[in-house]
Amino acid sequence: MIKKDFEKIFGQLFDNIPLVSIMGCEFDGTVFYWNKTAENLFGYKQDEIVGKNFADVIVPEKLRNKFINCLRESALIKQTDQYSPPIEVELRHKKGNKVPISCYQIKVLREGNDPLLFCLSIDVSEKRNKESKYRRILENMMDVYFFTDNDGIIQFVSDSAAKFYGVNDASDLVGKKALDMYFYPEEREIFYHSLKSSGRVTDEVTLRSQDGKPIITEMTTQYVYDEEGNQIGVDGVLRDVTKRHKTELALRESEVMFRRLFENELDSITILDAQTLDFEDANQATLDLYGYAREEYLSLNARDVTAEPEKTIPSIMKNRDKKRWDRIPLRYHRKKDGTIFPVEISNGVVEINNVKKIIGVVRDITKVKKSEEALKRSEERFRSIFENASTGINITDLSGNYLDVNESFCNMVGYTKEELVEKNFRDITFQDDLKKDIELFDDLLDNKIKNYQL
Asked: CA-to-CA distance for 280 and 85, rounded, in angstroms?
């Protein structure tokens, strides 16, 4: 009675156990048991497969002979309750699609009867999908993933390692010592000491490519443990930052060059915030021009140095979104001691860390203005002498065309000023004197004589 109860209980248990497909078969492959999970996994009902050879139903043709041979070999081993390690294989669904499973076998001997074989299978489709997803990630990642055992021997690297190290195939690296790939041995020791101390490290190291060239690398590594907490190796990610280093180096060199130009420029250069107009940097020429110490000047803004705030501030607000402004030929600024002086301004806008900055270049034009005023006064004096002289005075171009004449010259030759500026000196010279006049004029142009009289 108890035996029958157990048979009934275990029969119900096997029939309804979730996730595990159970198939019972003889060693020739004939199925005698098929639970509900097997029905769901492979699509065949019990009455469709019991009594049939499972190899003919769910095993792909290319694997059929291999399965049959395995059954024959198992039948020859006379051990009770023999258990075989699980294997992963793809069988066939009733609809024809592949069914990936993890399968293991249990052989049960019966007294006075032939042994029976039970195949327990678990659907690993989800596992395969995850593995496929991770495999695609590894295949397409630009960084290099690696795994080494506890002895530092490379067990796996992603495909990207081929390009990284300059080898034909990433698998060429499997079996090599990771420590041998460091360019500087002392760097290797420092890195692994840090890893032992913290269990996870991110740092820059220099590795060696296949052809011996250095690869500046950002490396993140950590210890890997199994489910029982035992350390089984080290894995990590490598990123080639050689180009980034070169870019950063070029940027630093550019910054040094800019700073030298900035500091040695004779004109005043000020960098200010486009919103607040606060000064953020200035070269030495600026400090010398305005008379401030650096700390003093950088505590100011554009409003503090202009002597024309009603012009300067609206102009900045109007143009601060432009990359380059029109040159401002004249503005008046104020020094620390209150001196007001004329300046010429050129401005531009740049973005630094997404914040707009104004670069203002200011040139002191005090001397220029004084020269212009002196020239203007000189021209006014010349014009007064020219117009009021009792002697006839004329100005010609290098071809002898009249450009300007005074009133005395007009009275002398009898032409109006308007008439003369349309003529050449040859047009009004007496014919007998014309040849001599032209010769002397040419000598004057050739610097052979300083003046002549005719």
From this structure: 72
